[in-house]
Amino acid sequence: MTEIRLKRAYDEPARSDGPRLLVDRVWPRGVAKEKASLAEWLKDLAPSTELRKWFGHDPARWDGFREKYLQELASSDRADLCTLASYVDKHERITLVFAAKDTDHNNAVALKQFIEARQLPV
């Protein structure tokens, strides 16, 4: 099984990261594209704008956000899900990159849970 790491976009890339996949809809403020060292920017895997605004990174809304976001992913026919599945199939380790300050309550955490529950398309 592929190891899935999570890393803030502001943290230094490492060789051990494997392919780094940005999973936010908006590019992280102040991060140069050259220094981000990304394999892909999978912006369509990010929560909808409405859901992101509703959540507002409020930990009290985490459970509701996570549930709604996982529903969005499960009901999605997003091409980025197939791209993500391809990375998971081909690599021993990938790193999901996100910009949020809260490292415990963000879409990358929920997306990792989605992958680990094997809900990716085959």
Overview of the structural elements:
InterPro entries: YeaO-like (IPR052552). It holds the Pfam family DUF488-N3i. With 122 residues, the protein is an alpha/beta fold. 38% of the residues lie in helices and 14% in strands. It is globular, with a radius of gyration of 13 Å.
Range of strand content: 5-15%
- What are the low-pLDDT stretches, counting only 5+ consecutive residues below 50? none
Q: Summarize the helix and strand pattern as letters.
A: EEHEHHHEH
Number of strands: 4
Average per-residue pLDDT, rounded, comes to 92
Secondary-structure content class? alpha/beta
What is the alpha-carbon Rg in Å?
A: 13 Å
Termini separation comes to 14 Å
The number of domains: 1
Estimate the global geometry from the Cα principal axes: globular
Percent of residues in helices? 25-40%
Number of helices: 5
Oligomeric category:
single chain
Q: In which order are the strands of the major sheet placed?
A: 1-4-2-3
* Main beta sheet strand tally, sense and closure: 4 strands, parallel
Pfam family, one: DUF488-N3i
InterPro entries: YeaO-like (IPR052552)
